[in-house]
């Protein structure tokens, strides 16, 4: 089950920098490619507002 970034995203880039498989791209909010995401939770761990969550 891939992670998805909610509208709470503040576009700080922390999740993109923290993703070990580069599954996150810039957007409003940022976007996680479900096919690339390995469900590790690294994005959620570094997000200051808790925007990434499992679908």
Automatic annotation (TrEMBL):
Top-level taxon? Bacteria
The record's listing under InterPro entries reads: 4Fe4S_Fe-S-bd, 4Fe4S_Fe_S_CS, 7Fe_ferredoxin, RnfB_subfamily
**What keywords would UniProt list here?**
4Fe-4S, Electron transport, Iron, Iron-sulfur, Metal-binding, Transport
> Coiled-coil annotation: which residues?
none
The UniProt GO MF terms for this protein read: 4 iron, 4 sulfur cluster binding; electron transfer activity; metal ion binding
Is Cell division included in the keywords of this UniProt record?
A: no
> What cofactor does this chain's UniProt record say it requires?
[4Fe-4S] cluster; [3Fe-4S] cluster
Where the record annotates domain 4Fe-4S ferredoxin-type, the positions are: 1-25, 28-55
Question: What is the role of the protein in this entry?
Answer: Ferredoxins are iron-sulfur proteins that transfer electrons in a wide variety of metabolic reactions.
Record-given protein name: Ferredoxin
């Amino acid at each position: 089950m891939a992670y998805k970034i909610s509208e709470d995203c503040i576009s700080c880039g922390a999740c993109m920098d923290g993703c070990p498989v580069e599954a996150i791209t810039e957007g409003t909010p940022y976007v996680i490619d479900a096919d690339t995401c390995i469900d590790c939770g690294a994005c959620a761990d570094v997000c200051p507002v808790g925007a990434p969550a499992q679908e």
